[in-house]
Amino acid sequence: MTEAVPGRDLPGHRRVLAIALPIVLSNATVPILGAVDTGVVGQLGEAAPIGAVGIGAIILTAFYWLFGFLRMGTTGLTSQAHGAGDGAEVAALLSRALIVAGVAGLGLILLQGPLFGLGFLVSPASDEVEEMARAYMGIRIWSAPAAIAIYGITGWLIAQERTRAVLVIQVWMNGLNVLLDLWFVLGLGWGVEGVAIATFLAEWSGAALGLWFCRAAFAGPYWRDAARVFDAVRIRRMISVNTDILIRSVLLQAIFVSFLFWGAGIGDVTLAANQVLLQFLHITAYGLDGFAFAAEAIVGQAVGARALAVLRRGAWLASLWAFAICLGLALTFALAGGAIIDLMTTAPEVRLAAKDDLVWMVLAPVVGLAPWMLDGIFIGATRTRDMRNMMALSAAGYFAAAPLLVAWLGNDGLWVALLLSFALRGITLGLRYPSLEREVAAG
Predict the structure, then answer these.
(1) Could you give the CA distance from residue 51 to residue 368 in angstroms, rounded to a whole number?
(2) Which terminus, N or C, of the chain has the lesser number of Cβ atoms within 10 Å?
(3) ∠ CA 266-392-418 to the nearest 5 degrees?
(4) DSSP letter at 443?
(5) Alpha carbon 115 to chain centroid distance?
(6) Lowest mean pLDDT among 100-114, 256-270, 403-417
(7) 3-state secondary structure of 68
């Protein structure tokens, strides 16, 4: 039997699905944990604990999200090293990711006081809720190194198409978190602190399990080869890639935050309806992430191996499956979107407002296909400067169009502006794709 060569074997449908499906299943577990956290503290019979866990989790997630570049950057760089057959660099990249996670996590722990203050300045709460939320965050912050390390570990595993391991880590963490939630809060009566301790233990155990899945990297000497791990050229490249991704992600987040603020300015009912409709976008993201990750891994390996045919076929097959998912979601939203809205809210006026704008949710998967998949392709190729610049162009288009469209069409105009930003990103990245192929072909 001929041994598979990373980056040089033409991918088939089975390979794409083997990468993508575990990620789709992993994403499906995420909303369950949030629902259980809310449901468990809801059994305490008071509103304050629910609000405390909610706002505390949002603030911490926002801080951790700043380091989400570690997942994407690690996937791109590691997949290329894997495709090039450079096992030493693959191991060194894991060490660099873990070092970044450790330093970042320690920084968050040391700066927790001012960071929490900033969080409550942006998201004010009552004194009772803030006190409980601070207690919750004061416990959870101690797992910051683990939570950020999981970004790097996940990216490293995805780069080598080991997404089943990613699924196991996610299921383990969320499953343990749910069980500990029930025990600590309902069994032992620890309240909000019990939810925090459950998450703290789940995150550290998830990081430990992830490191076990990475154990092959620690069997050789390269992960601790200081000269390689701290090589200035490689570190500069890692910093450049991750900085570009961070800027791109901040711009994307600015679009969504401003979207919520503009919706709030139209009215409370519009704000609530938009929150409901944004769940349709989350569902779309959960469905497409797996195929975007497949593109990251296959394209990255192809770039490392300088295998243009593999890059083309991997990008095409992953996008073909994503297209099928998008059509399925658009059809589902068109036929069952009203029923989904009714499940999410019982407020008659919110239901009516959300259904009035449901058409944009039918269009969103189709319009979002190109930017989602091209993001995956460009991450794998570490063409992060293009990602940053095209996101800047799409953000500029959004912020220029949104005020005019909102004044003209109200909330419909706001949704048109958001979909316009998707389309601009897809078109501009698409225009940059031929240069990616030329770079790989040139070797």
Answers:
(1) 32
(2) N
(3) 30
(4) -
(5) 22
(6) 256-270
(7) coil
